[in-house]
């Protein structure tokens, strides 16, 4: 059984190494689909949609109307700090793929605090940057239960 919830936010980012235009600071109206898979309880519920929203809302609020900055993009961080703008630092480049990775890791760590965690077996994240493109990641929850975060590997675009 799968359950899914969609989240939306507005944010800016850049990929300084990119040569096709994304090296410039620009914004997106992001959408993220979070799917959780597993076995429902005796009443037929895997996890309450309200709990999924409560789980992800702090992350979405941190990203909304902020500049997403890669940890090694010191120039961009300096500029947004000087402007007094909101920003969120990620440990890697701010690609859709890496936003998926970050969200999956975030959820994986938070699931340890949820009573339903034993029923959830897989996490799937889809981050859509534009109307026509998205990144997607699917990982087993077991990666997080033994304390090994998925983000230790870098994604490429």
Can you tell me about this structure?
It is elongated and about 55 Å long. By secondary structure, the chain is an alpha/beta fold. The protein is 29% helix and 34% strand. It has one domain: 2-Layer Sandwich (Tetrahydropterin Synthase, Chain A). It has four helices and six strands; from the N terminus they run ββαβαβαββα. It has a six-stranded mixed β-sheet. Mean pLDDT is 90; it is low at 151-157.
Give the key terms.
157 residues, Tetrahydropterin Synthase, Chain A, 6-stranded mixed beta sheet, alpha/beta
**Which strand order do you get reading across the main beta sheet?**
4-3-1-2-5-6
CATH homologous superfamily, by name? 6-pyruvoyl tetrahydropterin synthase/QueD
CATH architecture: 2-Layer Sandwich
Number of separate structural domains: 1
SSE pattern, N- to C-terminal = EEHEHEHEEH
CATH class categorisation = Alpha Beta
CATH topology: Tetrahydropterin Synthase, Chain A
Q: In whole angstroms, how far apart are the ends?
A: 30 Å
Number of helices: 4
Integer-rounded radius of gyration: 16 Å
Poorly predicted ranges (pLDDT <50, ≥5 residues)?
Answer: 151-157
Q: Tell me the overall shape.
A: elongated
Main sheet attributes: strand count, strand direction, barrel closure: 6 strands, mixed
Helix fraction by DSSP (H/I, runs of at least 4)? 25-40%
> Strand fraction band?
25-35%
Count of extended strands: 6
Structural class: alpha/beta
Overall pLDDT metric: 90
């Amino acid at each position: 059984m799968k359950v899914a919830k969609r989240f939306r936010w507005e944010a800016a980012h850049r990929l300084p190494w990119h040569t096709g235009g994304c090296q410039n600071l620009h914004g997106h109206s992001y959408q993220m689909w979070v799917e959780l898979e597993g076995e429902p309880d005796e009443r037929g519920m895997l996890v309450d949609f309200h709990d999924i929203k409560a789980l992800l809302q702090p992350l979405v609020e941190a990203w909304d109307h902020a500049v997403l900055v890669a940890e090694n993009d010191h120039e961009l961080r300096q500029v947004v700090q000087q402007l007094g703008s909101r920003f969120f630092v990620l440990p890697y480049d701010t690609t859709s793929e890496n936003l998926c990775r970050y969200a999956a890791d975030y959820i994986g760590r938070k699931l340890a605090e949820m009573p339903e965690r034993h029923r959830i077996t897989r996490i799937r994240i889809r981050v859509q940057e534009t109307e026509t493109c998205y990144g997607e990641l699917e990982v087993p929850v077991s990666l997080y239960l033994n304390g090994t975060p998925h983000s230790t590997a870098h994604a490429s675009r």
